[in-house]
Design the sequence.
């Protein structure tokens, strides 16, 4: 099954925020819980500032990415997809 992308919409933000938080808690051990909470509150602003794509494997959301001016600004994968080659 192939990976497909869709442009994210504001109604996707809740699911993206859940995925983001699970990934950050797992991979960003250097952040305090208060830092994560503060960043999370700003996610809608950050999402709106980039070309935001959602990534699906079949029907399952596996991650999202954001680019601006041809530069990757954010890439977050579902924790179950880490170390599987999806981020290459």
Sequence:
């Amino acid at each position: 099954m192939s990976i497909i992308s869709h442009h994210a919409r504001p109604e996707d933000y809740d699911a993206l925020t859940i995925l983001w938080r699970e990934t950050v808690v797992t991979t960003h051990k250097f952040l305090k819980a208060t830092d994560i909470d503060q960043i999370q509150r700003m996610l809608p602003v950050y999402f709106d500032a980039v070309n935001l794509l959602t990534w699906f494997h079949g029907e399952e959301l596996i991650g999202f990415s954001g680019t601006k001016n041809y530069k990757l600004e954010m890439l977050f994968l579902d924790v179950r997809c880490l170390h599987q080659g999806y981020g290459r």
Q: What stands out?
A: The CA atoms of residues 3 and 57 lie 5 Å apart. The first helix runs from residue 13 to 27. The chain has a mean pLDDT of 92.
